[in-house]
Amino acid sequence: MTEPTVHITPKAARKMKELVAARPHANPESGVRLGIKGGGCSGLSYVIEFCDRPRAKDKVLEPEGARVYVDPKSLLYLNGTTLDYVDTFQQKGFQFQNPQQRSECGCGQSFSI
Amino acid sequence: MAALLEIAEPGQSQVKEACVSAAVGIDLGTTNSLVAFVGPDPASGAGKPLALPVDEGSTLLPSVVSYRADGPPIVGREARRRAADAARDTIASVKRFMGRSSADPETKRLSPYRFAEGESGTVRFEVAGRTVTPVEVSAEILRTLKTRAEERLGTPVRQAVITVPAYFDDAQRQATKEAGRLAGLEVLRLLNEPTAAALAYGLDKRSEGTFAVYDLGGGTFDISILKLVEGLFEVKAVGGDSALGGDDFDRAVAEVLLAEMGRERDPRLVRQAIDAARAAKEALTARDSVEVEIAGFHRTLTRAELEAAMRPLIERTGPASRRALKDAGVEGKLDGVILVGGSTRVPAVRAYVRELFGLPPLADIDPDEVVALGAAVQADLLTAEKPQHDVLLLDVAPLSLGLETMGGLVEKLILRNTTIPTSATQEFTTFADGQTGMDIHVVQGERELVADSRSLARFRLSGIPALPAGLARVAVTFQVDADGILSVTAKEQLTGISQSITVKPSHGLTDEEIERMLLASLEHAEDDMAARLLIDARIEAQRILRAAEHQLESNGDLLDAEERAPIEQAMQSLRAAMESSDHRPIKDAIERLDHDSAEFAKRVMDRGIERALKGHTAAEFETGEMSEHAKKAYRALKDE
Amino acid sequence: MQPPAAGNAPDKFAVLGLPRGFELEARQLDERFRTLSRKLHPDRFARATARERRFSLEQTTLLNDAYRTLQDPARRAEHLLELRGVRPLSDTAMPEEFLEEAMADREKLLEAKMEGGKDGVEQLSAGIRKKRDAALKEIASVLRDASPQPAALSRVSELLARLRYYARYLDEAMGRAPEL
Questions:
Q1: Which subunits sit against A, judged by 3+ Cβ pairs under 8 A?
Q2: High-pLDDT (> 70) share of chain B, %
Q3: What is the pLDDT of residue B449?
Q4: In this complex, is the C-beta atom of B13 within 8 Å of any C-beta atom belonging to chain A?
Q5: Regarding predicted confidence, which is higher, B504 or B573?
Q6: Are both B335 and B299 inside the same structural domain?
Q7: By residue range, what is the domain housing residue B568?
Q8: Phi, psi dihedrals of residue B230, rounded to the nearest 5°
Q9: Is residue B516 part of a domain?
Q10: What CATH number has the domain bearing residue B269?
């Protein structure tokens, strides 16, 4: 039986590691929190932010040596999601690809399932 | 495709109003400008484009910008009222100056204005102690439309389809795009006005067949021939005169009146005569005679006199129309003629159209609004995940594009009325032994001589290997994109050395000037900060109220009456706070509503999870796994 | 700068997914063009990645060019020759007698115009249209052959040069001079 999880591409993992390391007050636990939050025009919205103190129930992922935390509630929504990092001439940034997602608004930050 | 995110600081992830930005259609007209929108917004009736009221309750924003020494410029009706007293500081019909050089005869013909000399030959107006370019003046109009649409829609407006006369050349298109950028808009597409009108028309009437769009606005005349088949709008030919419109009618009539008055002319008097002429023209669409008064001079003007003054101008639309019909190869096979533009309200124009095409013209959609409505439909087509209509526009290049060859002749690479996007490549050889550079001069127009054509750009390809004449070969490629904007690449075939440029008009703005204008517009934005904050707060408030209403409606059963009351009360006080002219009380009321509805939001989310769990249970039958974990996760949550 | 030399072109019939050949049904051509436009046009890719947008621009450019070429019988024939490696004949390389005939035609047109009678011009135009139709017919008959002789192909190339001349003549007769 597979645990619900979030897939993180090596590219995204490396980028996260690099960004976390560059922060002034990073500690050994410092990483990135992924999650979802109510609100936004389509109902739910993705969260991706730095995290210096994980919470007890967080799921901890360690792709490519990066530390990624997901709280259990968000994990339900994010299960099966792939997080990628896109870096093209035109644009760069992290991108959630969620198979459960049914619709998305223009900004890509909000979605509903 | 999902948008790209950046990692936020802890707790700083924002669910911003950013996600509901709207894309609008804008008709940036000579006389009036409009903004329209296709709603998913239920208020506007989904799927139907709607022109938004933007100026004193009207959907028409007069394209007039009045500059003041103290304070930001005024746009619209209020600016028009100032025109008589501040004729030189109030710019009207700026569209006629777009992309034109200060040396252009058309420029000199037009103006009560003071012009300043620019480095690159661009037109510059001296207004209220500073100089502005037509691009900046247009950006002011666009900015006003953007802001008022935002207030109206309650969402930020970031993207727009802006219409241009089909007959606009490359320089005029570039200038329009620049104005959009300056106003803080992403210009999704420049759409030809008659095509926009046909789009609105065709969708509304579900027509099929071949149509002519006769578009006579304040300053431009356009004729387009289109074929509509199964949701495909195929432009067959366009033509026109980018310096002919209702303004000219007014000037011709004013000329008659001024000649009769026989007084010495000054800008104020000329302005008054033009205003009187326009008022008379409008009144005479419904009456046979009207009283005219200019600075104490009285006269009765009849419709017959008006038409006599306008007739030669109206007849100038004939040859271009006939040529477009020929180019389209549809002589005598039209299914209808669509009227667009305020000047087609003039009875003499309608009569002439009927005579010209042998068909009674169609004008059941408001000719002032139809272009903006079509632009809104195109904006929806380009941005919506599920556009409201399944249609596609195929447009053409309005003017031929070519290169200067030996002897000042034009070698045309792309002929007018070629469907865009399109490209063409032509090879040239050197004409002198050991020639190492080649000057490339890009021109636009139908004439054979460079001297009679519009110069778009000059650049030099250097580094050609020194070879005997005729051996080095240079391939010049023209690419015209879906906006009708040209880019040119020149490539030496032996070495592969290449040069490419997006054509910047020879007399256009330099990069430094654009930079300066962008900076100036930022400063201007700072002056306006308070107003901006207020609008943002109102937008945010509307969004939150809408979300709250929606949640109360679909999940209201999660609350008992006692719990519901404070939320409704907080909503009520937010509505009241929105009337304030300061952003702070609105922000406070938003926070209060946020706070009072936090528990409700949590219950709504839990219900969402329960529903998601049910979904997983269904999936369990297929995979046999999912739901175990989901349940485990759910139990963990319950313990929290 | 000097005038160009010929380049080699991709098969425009293939772009539209049609079999190579001079005989072409206008309705089928239009239908293919519309279907492919719906699929490829940049408007359909406004929300796509930069790469997809570039691809769409390139493909639509090719499509528009192919459609324009195949719509017109003379250009279609020219393209068929091009695909067989036959270069178009330049106007100055035409046989002496044809050039003389052309000069005489033009003089007659000029005279008819000076006289001002519309009938004279119309009569002359009708004669040229007849020649044009005959040339098109001959081209069709050569190109219907699956593997025409080289001599037949150079005859087509000459006929195409004639067609260009007839087109210019008719434009002039109708007073369709290039305008501003």
A1: B, C
A2: 82
A3: 83
A4: yes
A5: B573
A6: no
A7: 528-596
A8: 45, 55
A9: no
A10: 3.90.640.10
Number of domains in chain B: 5
- Active-site residue B215, yes or no? yes
Mark whether B563 is an active-site residue: no
What ipTM was estimated for this complex?
Answer: 0.81
Active site residue B70: no
- Ramachandran area for residue A4 (φ above 0: left; ψ -120 to 50: alpha; else beta): beta
Question: Do B97 and B51 reside in the same domain of the chain?
Answer: yes
Would B152 be classed as within a structural domain? yes
Put simply, whether C46 touches A (Cβ < 8 Å) is no
At B204-228, the pLDDT tens digits run 777 788 999 999 988 889 999 999 9
Give the domain-ending residue among B277, B296, B314. Answer: B314
Instruction: List b or e across B117-141, with b for residues whose CB sees 16 or more CB atoms inside 10 angstroms.
Output: ebeebbbbbebbeeebbbbbbbbbb
Same domain, B287 and B333: no
Catalytic residue among B55, B140, B193, B368: B193
pLDDT tens-place string over residues B20-74: 568 899 999 999 999 999 875 444 445 788 999 999 999 999 999 999 988 889 9
For residue A90, the chain C residues in CB contact (below 8 A) are 49-50
pLDDT of residue B111: 61
CATH topology assigned to domain C12-71: Helix Hairpins (1.10.287)
3-state SS string for chain C: CCCCCCCCCCCHHHHCCCCCCCCCCHHHHHHHHHHHHHHHCHHHHCCCCHHHHHHHHHHHHHHHHHHHHHHCHHHHHHHHHHHCCCCCCCHHHCCHHHHHHHHHHHHHHHHHHHHCCHHHHHHHHHHHHHHHHHHHHHHHHHHHCCCCCHHHHHHHHHHHHHHHHHHHHHHHHCCCCCCC
Q: What is the pLDDT of residues C152-173, one digit of tens each?
A: 888 888 888 888 888 888 877 7
Any idea where the domains of chain A sit in the sequence? 7-100
Residue B580 lies in a domain: yes
Say whether pLDDT at C9 is over 80: no
Give the best residue of B4, B423, B431, B439 to mutate against chain C (max C CB count within 10 A): B423
Q: What is the pLDDT of residues C74-95, one digit of tens each?
A: 899 989 988 888 877 766 677 7
CATH number at residue B592: 1.20.1270.10
Residues B358 and B492 in one domain: no
Say whether residue C178 is in contact with chain B using an 8 A CB cutoff: yes
Q: Are B18 and A57 in contact (CB < 8 Å)?
A: no
Radius of gyration of chain A (CA): 14
Hey, are the CB atoms on C34 and B230 less than 8 Å from each other? Answer: yes
User: Do residues B306 and B328 share a domain?
Assistant: no
Q: Assess whether pLDDT exceeds 60 at residue B626.
A: no
| Interface contact flag, A76 B20, Cβ < 8 Å | no
* B5/A50 touch (CB, cutoff 8 Å), yes or no: no
Residue B12 lies in a domain: no
Q: Cβ(B430)–Cβ(B464) under 8 Å? A: yes
Residue C116 exposure: Cα atoms within 13 Å on the Cβ side = 0
Residues from chain A that touch C49, judged by Cβ atoms under 8 A, are 88, 90
Residue B525 banded pLDDT, cuts 50, 70, 90: low
Q: Which CATH number does A7-100 carry?
A: 2.60.300.12
Please give the single-letter amino acid code of residue A2: T
Partner-chain residue, chosen from A16, A100, A107, that has the shortest CB–CB distance to B19: A107
Residues of chain A contacting C51 with CB distance shorter than 8 Å: 88
Q: Which of B333, B361, B394 is the last residue of a domain?
A: B394
Inter-chain residue contact C49 with A89, CB threshold 8 Å: no
* Count of CB pairs separated by less than 8 Å, B with C: 91
Same domain, B379 and B464: no
pLDDT bracket for residue A91 (50, 70, 90): low
Do both B179 and B123 map to the same domain?
yes
